[in-house]
Design brief:
The structure holds two protein chains of two kinds. By secondary structure, chain A is an alpha/beta fold. Chain A folds into two domains: about 140 residues, Aspartate Aminotransferase, domain 1, CATH 3.90.1150.10; about 240 residues, 3-Layer(aba) Sandwich (Aspartate Aminotransferase, domain 2). Chain A is built from 13 helices and twelve strands. The longest helix of chain A is centred in the C-terminal third of the chain and has 39 residues. Chain B has a three-stranded antiparallel beta sheet. The chains are: A alpha/beta, B alpha+beta. At the A-B interface, α10, α11 and α12 of A face α1, β2, β3 and α2 of B.
């Protein structure tokens, strides 16, 4: 497709769950650290000290958002890296205790695939069951924990269907049983309040680009005393847990995004939830043969996920893109492996419902007029594709 | 062929305004291929008439497709290509002809062009079978293969879904 054409027309971004634009205030905070204050945090001279100082200040800011201590935060390149570090790092340093790990079946691929790899390498993985909303049952966690269990990993909120898991209950069970509890908070960090002590998390992953920070920066909260082996060995950065020259500019951006989130989270999540509900109500009231995926209440403030029967998701995405609306789908046709979304399969949607799934994720710059526009054009888009489909009624 | 996921302008044109869309009432032949589990389903309807030389041609052809952008655009192209052709000539339409007209398809979507070919040949098979006509060996083979492939795919996808 012609890029100029795309640029010229109306563009509404409703895929904030995939990534977000960097907030201009974040960019401004980052700029000096590319060429003015560019030092290596390991250097002894002034340039290095300047970088080291801002690194530690950023660490404090990030820790403060989730009520952690600064020395419990390490910076990584992504939530994918953080999650790999958790699973592999805990597995390898707690082998003496056991080889059993419990995860939910709707974790992000970076957990699912890492668990599969560990399974191939002699670890035992249990996958929890979920209900039709994607909710894990804490009682099942309790039932599955055994002597050999070293880690339970359940995401805070699901990236596709937006369901918020009962992690506080799960954390309490893990604490009582003496098992490490990890939560992947990539979709909630900076969006809804998190207190690592309240949820009894031993480990928590997050990513900067999901809440208006730059790409290529993530973090991992590791509670003091947790035994974990690094993935990256080398010069001993990040308390020896993540060697590699520190991405100072990126981390400064991450910390600035955290600072903004702290100030704006409450108001923003309320506004987003209102727009979300308007979108859900509008779709429900104007289009037939649809289903809301995910939990109706225990849901991210910015997530809307529907299945539209008789139409295929990739066609919906492209048709909406032609009208300037950017959304995503869990349809097999849109994935690189031509496999349907494991999340939508796990909540037992029928294949035709998975193929016709559409995710709208709202964010900082979503306006009510954007939602109005979607509600205006979407019924026709669905109708037109249903006309083409042999399954139309 | 291109290896990225981006569709050509031509693909998008056919997607936006598909040709020969819809159903034919009382068609002479119907070809139904694909399955809902893996995501693409195509129905092709044909109306057959004799031309001035007395040869049977595809007088009218329409399609209905449930599927991705590639599936819709290949459906549109194959109906264009088949319209007015003799049955023999229609059966010679190749997947490369379809891909060429579309200016290429992402590698992962090439199977959609095969699906379009299959739907057309199944419609012609249906027409010949219904009229108790002799079915060319090549077409018989193709029909069997399509049915068999469908079974294999359905089994494979069911297996994959179960595993999860």
């Amino acid at each position: 497709m012609n890029n100029k054409k795309i640029m010229a027309k109306k563009r509404i971004y409703l895929d904030y769950g995939a990534t977000t634009p960097v907030d201009p205030r974040v960019i401004k905070a980052m700029i000096p650290f590319f060429n003015e204050k560019f030092g290596n945090t390991m250097s002894l001279h002034g340039f290095g000290q300047e970088a080291k100082l801002v690194l530690e200040k950023s660490r404090e800011q990030v820790a403060d958002l989730i009520k952690a201590k600064a020395n419990e935060i390490i910076f990584t390149s992504s939530a994918t890296e953080s999650n790999n570090l958790v699973l592999k790092g805990i597995a390898f340093s707690n082998r003496k205790k056991g080889n059993h790990i419990i995860i939910s079946p709707i974790e992000h691929p970076c957990i699912m695939e890492t668990a599969k790899w560990l399974e191939k390498n002699g670890f035992e993985i249990s996958r929890l069951s979920i209900d039709k909303y994607g909710l894990v049952d804490p009682k099942e966690v309790k039932k599955l924990i055994k002597k050999e269990t070293i880690l339970v990993s359940v995401m805070h909120a699901n990236n596709e269907i937006g369901t918020i898991e009962p992690i506080k209950e799960i954390g309490a069970i893990c604490k009582k049983q003496g098992v490490y509890f990890h939560t992947d908070a990539t979709q909630t960090f900076g969006k809804i309040p998190i207190d690592v002590n309240e949820i009894n998390a031993d480990l928590l992953s997050a990513s900067s680009h999901k809440f208006y920070g730059p790409k290529g920066v993530g973090c991992l909260f590791i509670r003091e005393g947790v035994k974990i082996t690094p993935l990256l060995h080398g010069g001993g950065h990040e308390s020896g847990l993540r060697s590699a020259t520190v991405n100072v500019a990126g981390i400064v951006g991450f910390a600035k995004a955290v600072e903004l989130a702290k100030k704006e989270m409450k108001k923003e999540s309320k506004q987003l939830a209102e727009l979300r509900d308007k979108l859900i109500k509008g779709i429900s009231g104007n289009i037939k043969d649809i289903q809301l995926n995910g939990h109706p209440e225990k849901r991210l403030p910015n997530n809307v996920n529907f299945s539209f029967s008789f139409v295929e998701g990739e066609s919906l995405v492209i048709q909406l893109d032609l009208l300037g609306i950017a959304v995503s789908t869990g349809s097999a046709c849109s994935s690189d492996k031509l496999l349907p979304s494991h999340v939508l399969s796990a909540i037992k949607l029928k294949p035709y419902q998975i193929h016709g799934s559409l995710r709208f994720t709202l964010g900082r710059w979503t306006k009510e007029a954007d939602i109005d526009y979607v509600l205006k054009v979407l019924p026709n888009v669905v109708e037109k594709l249903r006309e083409i489909s042999p399954y139309k009624k | 062929m291109n290896n990225n996921k981006i569709y050509t302008k031509k693909v998008i044109e056919h997607f936006k305004n598909p040709h020969n869309l819809g159903k034919i009432k009382n068609p002479d032949g119907i070809g139904k291929v694909g399955n809902l589990i893996c995501g693409d389903v195509m129905h092709i309807y044909i109306q057959v008439e004799k031309n001035k030389k007395g040869k049977e041609i595809i007088k009218n052809i329409k399609f209905e497709t449930f599927g991705c952008v590639a599936a819709l655009s290949t459906s549109s192209v194959i109906t264009d290509l088949a319209k007015g052709k003799t049955l023999d000539k229609a059966l010679q339409i190749n997947k490369d002809d379809i891909v060429k007209i579309l200016g290429g398809l992402p590698a992962i979507k090439l199977h959609c062009s095969v699906l379009a070919m299959d739907a057309l040949s199944e419609a012609i098979y249906d027409y010949l079978a219904k009229n108790k006509r002799e079915i060319p060996k090549e077409l018989q083979k193709r029909h069997k293969k399509i049915k068999k492939d469908l079974e294999v795919i359905e089994k494979r996808y069911e297996g994959l879904l179960k595993k999860k």
